[in-house]
Amino acid sequence: MDIVKKILWKWENIALRKTLAVYIFVGFITAILCSSVFIIFFENWKTTVLQVNGVQGVEILLQGGNYQVISAEGDSSLEKVKRQIEILKFLEIVSVLICGGGAILCVSHQYYKRKLEEPLRILKREMEFIGRDDLSFDCSYISNDEMGEICQAFNCMRKQLIKNQKNLWELMESQRELNAAFAHDIRTPLTVMRGYTQMLLQFYPAGKLSEDKLIETLLMLEKQTERIEQFSLTMKEIHTMEEWRVNRQPLSMKELVQQINVTLQGLSKEGKEIHLHVDVQQDKEKLICDKNLIQEVVDNLLINALRYAKKEINVLIQTEEEGLCIYVKDDGEGFTKEALMKAARPYFSTTEGHFGLGLTICQTLCKKHGGELEVLNSIDGGGIVSVYFMTI
Asked: Which of left, alpha, beta for 53 (phi over 0: left; psi -120 to 50: alpha)?
């Protein structure tokens, strides 16, 4: 039983060209056998006709494709026998043609039925679904022949279209959130500017506004204008980060630590007395990464940690078989519940005067490098931001 199943499985998965050759061979043999049966049948019928009509000792010559009775013994009409023989010869030729045509039709029908009908039906339905912009139909066809490969290719294309649509939707959603955040945050300086403008229109024509107050108001308007300009620059900066091309090159752990120490030394001169500590736990000396991208992320994390730290910032660097992990921990108040959910969103900030783009930029660059960003709170207080980069 297992042998039969194996034979059937191999037959179902044989290549289309080989299958067609087998069907043609079988059809050819069948046509020959059927034709032979009909030829024997009609030859016997001819003999029967001659015997029934009393024609004996007959000599029949084939002239121009027709039978001709040239001599006979008996009283039967030779012309009648000749017509019957010619009719049987014609029927014999027709039967051979019918056998050949029937074999061709049967082979074509069976070949289409067994090898083409089902995959073509699946592909047609898949195209109908795609035409309706519906990618839910799975066009898998279990076969190792060419039609199975075509269906598999269509299914891979369908999955890629789903992936592309998902990426496009996420990009549009991200852009929508970014635009909404920008529109929300820019409303504040515009409201302030409108208020100062209305005050100028109301009091300056009446001479109720001193020169000092006028200058102060104009300086306020200028400050709000600068704030709007800064908003615009940050929008451009985010798009620039999304277009960052990762340039992977060999980088030693020693060089990476030196870069981080340089940043730490620069931050220590900002006037805030913070103890900065770096701990390195490495399994390998060389990394394949974009050092500029990693430096950009680390700079943003350290600047962000410095804003919230009270006395110290701890940096932990760990290398893994396929990646690099960097943890930046401060001893501040930690992340609020809202910040844990929205910290990496653009323009989310819990500090007055900051645009909340640091972690957004870090998250974008981490994804560019095949990694991710995560925010959490330490069990002993303070916030932790961890970043991961693929380094293979």
From this structure: alpha
